[in-house]
């Protein structure tokens, strides 16, 4: 069994981080340049970490599979970033942001981590503004805010509908500065295919160059994974096509525990699926729920009628009806399940019946078309390009889609996994969002981890490692890992079966969406646990990966990622089956209140489930870390 | 949603690797749905090629929602295809009809060599950014965010420039392979904001000289760049950068030397 020590400092909640920073070990400036740190990924978390560590003097190597670090999928985040600045004078505070995030996560996150996140949120905004991030401003020249789901204050900072882009370009500029100064060595089109563990510590990675196919070994004193989430297990999602779980999955197989894999976020406002050729789903930002009203017809007979012909009296603004205090701004998991329920009742709109209206008629009446265009113009444009419909004239049709994964590698308060020397940041870890993430909190966590947590905590580990003691990349552990990577690659290329990789990805996605999606039950999960291993077996016998391994081969890249998804999907179902309660994004049909809301079981499941790899063909071990709530009282989440 | 499918022929550039000879190949694609994106049509083609034993067409893509800047197709001679202000990935097959022959090529520009088929190497853009596309502040040293007010009009204009996705269509569209629109967007974004003033001169000088050194051509004011830009970034920013550059050259010439000292 893995030892899971959260290392949460003792004492009163609001002072934990301050005291911890004062207590942890430091590395002196002259020694910092003797340490090499590998950062995998260059999204918000990876870029900000690499840039900050290089500024401090560490030698940083940053690896990305993209052709440029600016392409990481953080760039696609639309709506905004939360921070407890209280610029709106509406009663916000660090405590309130902490509390909203804990409650939004359905009391399944670690209090201390979340409080720290709320504390550093204010520094993030300062940092980004100083970098030149062009946040929206008021006429007086000060920063503007808007509201997001799960909060009753306006604390979200934004840059039109492209906040993630602007924050990433800020972090990318810091990264570029580090590259220019020589502190960071950048490796683009370089995919991490294994973690190297020496004497129980993470000391390097194995990388495949996606242009030449060359496999190389890289040693370091510490390894930081900031490789994002694993929502592409579902095939269809709002993730980029390249987003994958390979880095964290290979780390899992080297001993890092995988926490709460079943916690996936289904975002309520995405453009519905149109056909089986579809490669991705596009998000319509949650910020639209500030001004758009969600409804379906009261009667199923009306569902195919033109929406304008349905009078107000025949419309069901179901979120406003069921959740009068939060209305259209209730949290994502709640809004998604409500959409599923009305569609299950046969009232879903569009030909497929899998859609609800997001209607701007009322806000266009209030703000004028130009007012709505100023706030959301680019989102309306995207909607028009994809659907060929003008949302200024007819309501948008939206439906929930996979958007984020709250689960990820287990980390302690220092963001270090149970494998010493392996740190995990951003969406790739599990730490801050519990069972459901609130809107505009992912950007906050990525940058908080990278700019303001890891610079302190990595030193605590490195101070225990003698400078210059890192193993050589020519040591046996590295060579063995390299050979294993090369064997897996050549094995995939040699199958030459009858189906392309996409075939298996689609089938896995269908199983996951059906049995481990918005609603789960024992029978379905058990079925999935039969079907996924069978599909995985078929993949390894019948997949056709064309081409060779010594050149750019996009089919081979995807095959490796899908092979990992085929294993991870099974672990997600196992976790969902073992968690006999409903919480946040994890909704077990057996555990609900009569009105369809989540029914948690705090007596038996107020813990993190951290799965430990036990070897090929063996059942993984379910370790638990109890969640001790010292400050907040766990209660039934209520948005009514 | 439409159910009427149709067929097209894709005439696509095939090239094994950098510096290798390339050629066009024609592939029929049947069952095209008007709601398919252009890249999804290529996905369908690639699965068919795979099963026929032909190596699939390599093309760059990632977010498929027009923001990451990875996709970079030249479709029927136009970077990012037929529509104004959208990236290749946001081009939908409803723009085509049964029997169309669609020519798909990589960007053709010396600083962006072909890696394979439709994929080009745009790392030159990263090198220009590394030359000065940043504000040199250390993590943790930032002042309170609202301590420096920025007029809304200035912030909005900076945002207009800042939304460049770094796709390189401006270079591909330009007969001189000029990167002026890309560089001007970054120089203007940071140069407009008060936070960017301390390094305004050195930034524009360093980025322009790096751009020139990487082999990008000069601007001859024909604005093919902004016409091809998926984010509709205005060529007016080029004029703005030229003014910034001239001022910076002038100011950097002032180097006071005391009488008798070594120059």
What is this entry, summarized?
The complex is a heterodimer of chains A (640) and B (263). Helix content of chain A is 37%, strand content 14%.
Describe it for me?
The complex is a heterodimer of chains A (640) and B (263). Chain A is α+β, with helices and mostly antiparallel strands and 640 residues long. Among the domains of chain A are: 136 residues, Flavocytochrome C3, Chain A, domain 1; 151 residues, Fumarate reductase/succinate dehydrogenase flavoprotein-like, C-terminal domain (Methane Monooxygenase Hydroxylase, Chain G, domain 1, Up-down Bundle). A 5-stranded parallel beta sheet of chain A has the order 5-2-1-9-17. The longest helix of chain A has 27 residues. With 263 residues, chain B is α+β, with helices and mostly antiparallel strands. Chain B folds into 2 domains: 111 residues, Beta-grasp domain (Ubiquitin-like (UB roll), Roll), CATH 3.10.20; 131 residues, Orthogonal Bundle (Fumarate Reductase Iron-sulfur Protein, Chain B, domain 2), CATH 1.10.1060.10. In chain B, 34% of the residues lie in helices and 13% in strands. A 5-stranded mixed beta sheet of chain B has the order 2-1-5-3-4. A two-stranded antiparallel ribbon of chain B has the order 6-7. In chain B, strand 1 and strand 2 form a beta hairpin. In chain B, helix 3 packs antiparallel against helix 5, helix 5 runs antiparallel to helix 6 and helix 6 crosses helix 8. The longest helix of chain B has 17 residues. Chains A and B meet through helix 3, helix 5, helix 6, helix 10 and helix 11 of A and helix 1, helix 2 and helix 3 of B.
